[in-house]
Amino acid sequence: MHRLRTCAARLRPLTASQAAQTVGQQRPITVTSTGGKRTFQPIRCYTAPVASEPFLNGTSSNYVEEMYYAWLENPKSVHKSWDVFFRNANAGAPPGAAYQSPLGLSAASSLVAPQLSSLVGAQPNVEKLVEDHLAVQSLIRAYQIRGHHVAQLDPLGIMDADLDSCVPTDIITSSDKLGEELTLRNRPPLRVFSAPPRWLEESLKRYRTMAYCQHIGVEFMFINDLDQCQWIRQKFETPGVMQFTLEEKRTLLARMVRSTRFEEFLQKKWSAEKRFGLEGCESLIPALKTIIDKSSENGVENVIMGMPHRGRLNVLANVIRKELEQIFCQFDSKLEAADEGSGDVKYHLGMYHRRINRVTDRNITLSLVANPSHLEAVDPVVQGKTKADQFYCGDTDGKRVMSILLHGDAAFAGQGIVYETFHLSDLPSYTTHGTVHVVVNNQIGFTTDPRMARSSPYPTDVARVVNAPIFHVNADDPEAVIYVCKVAAEWRATFHKDVVVDLVTDRRHLEFPMFTQPLMYKQIKKQKPVLQKYAEKLIAEGAVSRQEYEEEIAKYDKICEEAYARSKDEKILHIKHWLDSPWPGFFTLDGQPKSMSCPSTGLTEDNLNHIGQAASSVPVEDFTIHGGLSRILKGRAEMVKNRMVDWALGEYMAFGSLLKEGIHIRLSGQDVERGTFSHRHHVLHDQNVDKRTCIPMNHLSPDQAPYTVCNSSLSEYGVLGFELGFAMASPNALILWEAQFGDFQNTAQCIIDQFICAGQAKWVRQNGIVLLLPHGMEGMGPEHSSARPERFLQMCNDDPDVLPVRRTHRAVISERCLIIFTPKSLLRHPEARSSFDEMLPGTHFQRLIPEVGVAAERPEAVKRLIFCTGKVYYELTKERKSRGLEDTVAISRIEQLSPFPFDQVKAETERFPNADLVWCQEEHKNQGYYDYVKPRIRTTTQKAKPVWYAGRDPAAAPATGNKNTHLIELRRFLDTAFHLDAFRDQQ
Predict the structure, then answer these.
(1) CA 446/CA 442 separation, integer angstroms
(2) pTM (two decimals)
(3) In the chain, where does the domain assigned CATH 3.40.50.11610 lie?
(4) Which among 72, 145, 697, 845 has most CB atoms closer than 10 A?
(5) 21/967: higher pLDDT
(6) Any alpha helices (H) in 542-642, and if so which ranges?
(7) Fold of the 848-986 domain
(8) Helix (H, G, I), strand (E, B), or coil: what is residue 785?
(9) pLDDT of amino acid 127
(10) DSSP of 454-506
(11) Contact between 289 and 254 (Cβ < 8 Å)
(12) Has residue 210 got a pLDDT over 80?
């Protein structure tokens, strides 16, 4: 086989006329060899081996191996010349000698290996021809693989986009010499394109000047799918593909006018205002519009976009088509803010707009998601929102809903969230079926030279991890940009995979650029604006006249001036005009605002039993579960029989009841299917059939909502952003993200700080995402103990010094995120259980669970009221019982920390008028809840009593890593909590 491959590497198919002889032989072939059973589809390469031409388009000898296996089964399944070739190769013919000319097949068919030497001697030029064509083949492949390294991508002409000025050795000027020698020797026809044969020198020139080495550089040969590579070759190697109609050129010019004149208008009116303009990459606007046009043509109805701040206002104005007066009024320093929140700077805001696409005459919805200054943080949020929109409209393959992500070059290369987002692109529960990534490559990161900002040749190299093709293009060539964007949109529509467009450009306006980039900005000053260059090109071609060009400019300038005049009438900033995810019908009922009420969360006994039975059984026949899981399900059934629930079964009851009511639930995170602590088991695995699974909760009732439970990649930042985006799409769903351990949310802090906690204040973006964060001090060390509740409480905005006034009217409905510090050891704690009686109709969520034991019978005798939350309650009750203090110490649990239950805390303190007030927590004093609850408890008592602290001493780390130290700390703060004179001694 090695000899076969060596020989085959020097051959190619017949011409079209020769290939026609074998059409009848081309049929699917199934053969069994040492590699197993394989089925092959005949292709053009199944024709005769001709040594006078190189392989088509740089293909390898893989197809020869396929034919070889077919030939082993049936020698007549291939052309006669291949039959001779394989017989000679098997007989031991050396490389090059196994080939026989198809001109005398009847005679050649009788040849055997011992006769080859005389025949080869009669054809002294065969070996030289093979060598020549192998050299041509290598050169063509070199252009395909490395042509982008010599492409003219930098509009300034001073930098190399790949940070390397060396020309690859296999495409240096010796290729010209090779071309001359081959042309003079035999002028063989080459079919390096899907077009009529061209002479060699024309073909090589085409590779250098059209396909791969001019204003477009294509990276695709790393893709391991032959069909995808061939598809890209066709798009860039076929002659005449970059031809534009007169109408297309005029449309492109008009879009360039809008993009350029919008920035010039802002610069003229507000030269001192920070706006992060698009100057230098004005071709971005027609690029995005082309992607949208082509996608609309392919059936896309909804496009969700995310981008950093550079060029955002231009995208809002000329792509999303936001009213210009709404944009211009944002620059008015006297604009008053409405009472809807703190708001955000104009270049962070988003937008949602449904309109007609003027090119396709089809409706299309465009969304630009609001983004903080954390440049790439919006990437997974956009992907999650896209996935949700696809889910809710039944778009299972991404043909109707798609995403476009814009990036800066330095951030794309430097921020890890980019990789996390790419890594989600092909996962079953996270794929959006292809995203078009557009990189605005300024070739500078603010003032940082790219050679100091990345180790990779290109900023886009991270995309290679998912085999995404990368199209580099000189952004000063608008037609090249448009063509590349068309190809990118077609790629996404064809293969439903990610693709990257790298717009190599410059940043025209930078604060004090000569301090750090003198050469670049000297050259920038000499550059003609790209609009001017393109207009002069079209005028020279006769595509437009100068008068038409000037009229187009005047028309758009007039639009801007009229919008500017209207913007003076805007006196108040209403952030609702900038919503990126509206929820129609959610906040109103019959035209009136809905009111927020707290209905009963209870279920009927029948419902509880029905869901409990589903939680403790396997609804699929012939499904074998693990023996240990059988015991768990049996234990659940026993609890249902006894009308009791633990945490896992309680979660099952909550989820199941919502699903039966038609509420979709999505639970995502690391190991959530089973649960990190092996308590959930929402996905069952057949022990006898690999990858056969069952989700019992999807078998509750015929008309229930679907339950999506999916293990995620080992990511927090990206996955939490994704789930946040998913929750943005609809308020009528329960979207949950669970951290493997609560403190793992540390790496998702950007999403928590910038989107979850501040999103409503900044962008009026309400969101009902639920975070499940396992938390508890159990001697597991500093990284598996604390979910850092103090961070979340610090970001809550209720005033600790003001006792809320009880309102007689109901508050307007609001959708808020929910942070739950979930237990670990309590998952199996015998006392952490509830009766069905606490879950029946008429029951409600308890913001505070009051003392109900012996101490409640004689409240005036209680000397100490301990407030706490979480796991420490069970340690306190155990300690109280062992000390015999059940009649003098009351313990109340605050279940809802924010908004703080002022009213119920006040009622509890008044119930025990003679008691000292203590806050007890297992966390360190500078962490946990103490700094949050202390001023609020004091506010409820009008500061009449101090609030004493019982807990661990202040510390830098969340917990000790020593088990013995952990137990000593626990004993110490429990002693403090129950020692009646401890606080007076401290005082």
Answers:
(1) 9
(2) 0.84
(3) 848-986
(4) 697
(5) 967
(6) 546-567, 605-615, 627-641
(7) Rossmann fold (3.40.50)
(8) coil
(9) 64
(10) -SSSSTTGGGGGGT--EEEEETT-HHHHHHHHHHHHHHHHHH---EEEEEE--
(11) no
(12) no
Per the structure block, which two tokens stand in for 410? 């330095």
Average pLDDT over residues 610-637: 95
Q: How buried is 245 (Cβ within 10 angstroms: 0-12 exposed, 13-18 middle, 19+ buried)?
A: exposed
User: Counting beta carbons within 10 angstroms of the beta carbon of residue 409, is it exposed (0 to 12), middle (13 to 18) or buried (19 or more)?
Assistant: buried
- Which among 409, 417, 402 is positioned nearest to 497, based on CA atoms? 402
Q: Which two tokens stand for residue 300?
A: 């896309």
956-962 average pLDDT score: 93
- C-alpha 427/C-alpha 866 separation (Å) is 48
Q: What is the C-alpha separation between 365 and 363, in angstroms, rounded?
A: 7
pLDDT at 69: 67
Are 181 and 173 spatial neighbours (Cβ–Cβ below 8 Å)? Answer: no
The mean-pLDDT minimum among 30-44, 339-353, 576-590, 900-914 falls in 30-44
Domain 246-578, CATH class in plain words: alpha beta
The neighbouring-strand residues paired with 866 are 891, 918
Domain boundaries for CATH 3.40.50.970 within the chain: 246-578
Q: Which CATH number is 614-822 given?
A: 3.40.50.12470
539: CB partners within 8 A, 6+ apart: 545, 546, 549
- Smallest CA-to-CA distance from 256 within 29, 664, 534, 611 is with 534
- Strands 362-368 and 302-306 turn out to be parallel
% pLDDT > 70, the chain? 80
- Cα 376 versus chain centre, distance: 10
- Other CB atoms within 10 A of residue 520 CB: 21
CB 186 within 8 A of CB 199: no
